[in-house]
Amino acid sequence: MDRFKAPAVISQRKRQKELHSPKLSCSYEIKFSNFVIFIMQRKMGKTRRMFLMELGRRKGFRVESELSDSVTHIVAENNSYLEVLDWLKGQAVGDSSRFELLDISWFTACMEAGRPVDLELKYHLMEQRQSPPLNVPELEMPAFTATKVSQYSCQRKTTLNNYNKKFTDAFEVMAENYEFKESEIFCLEFLRAASLLKSLPFPVTRMKDIQGLPCMGDQVRDIIEEIIEEGESSRVREVLNDERYKAFKQFTSVFGVGVKTSEKWYRMGLRTVEEVKADKTLKLSKMQKAGFLYYEDLVSCVSKAEADAVSLIVKNAVCTFLPDALVTITGGFRRGKKIGHDIDFLITSPGPGEDDELLHKVIDLWKRQQFGRDLRRYASHERKMVLDNHALYDRRKRIFLKAGSEEEIFAHLGLDYVEPWERNA
What we know:
The protein has 425 residues and is α/β, with parallel strands linked by helices. 45% of the residues lie in helices and 10% in strands.
């Protein structure tokens, strides 16, 4: 039982420390002295609170770092009216009715306007007074029942509308850290918990919300409880600041580099991708060389518009050999994502056996076109010429160069002629 009481004791100590901490010095001009604002740290986190306090002071508001009798407006984020009242009871402030209890949306609206905005009803934290319909048993009211949630993702409906991103982001960091440590059991524990919370049709705001849910082990519950109470997880923060985690995060972002290689490089004293690239003693595999060569392209995100454009290129190439083939985007973009890290395609042909050599043909076609792109780049960068499908133009002499064959184009560019079968770039 002591293990379950400890978080409450720690949280109370943190609250007392916050209540009695010294005031921060204010070097900004106070324009709106009638408004004395206190921003609650509960469920927000220390870093975000400090940022908002500094922002408010820059805008001319009086923002107090501790709760006192001079405070007129209390701002909270992801806290209900009753939760704020309960918090105030623990601060020994006496009558809490003298405070305006407001949602963070009021504060952000003030920051956008650069002045205090009207205290509209939508900004107030208020007690919910709606009563359940008569003669309806309480257990029949919730539309969501934890016992009906399956532990298998294939039996759950999960949209892109993730109400619990602050938890799932934390779980994915923990899962990745355990993956780097090759601890599959704990890695899967956090991945499954993240997957389940993504499927919930509501945000988790209290521990009671996850009661009865599968995949909620002790480690998972501890992190959820800390995030609910403090706005962030100290364990996740510790991982994000860990030197080994940061190094593995960089190394594994390179195509062809896994945990084993990352461990080897880390033991060699390497910590960043730049240090690996600078180490000429390393023997890289073919995939790793390609990973470093195209690193920036591979780690950059792909938008839905870019995926559609690439889809058109793929369709045109495929239809060159199979006019009736179907090219369909699959993966994340098919699931409705707007941003991804790669583009997946499903290519189907109308008849049996017609696609045996299709991929080889398409890749060979693209290899020849890659080659052509570099030829044009060489002409522009090295020879100050413009090469396109129609002509070769010398920008220095301001003349079009006559060329009746590929050999003559290569000659104008000062290049040895490369035969078509030697252009598999």
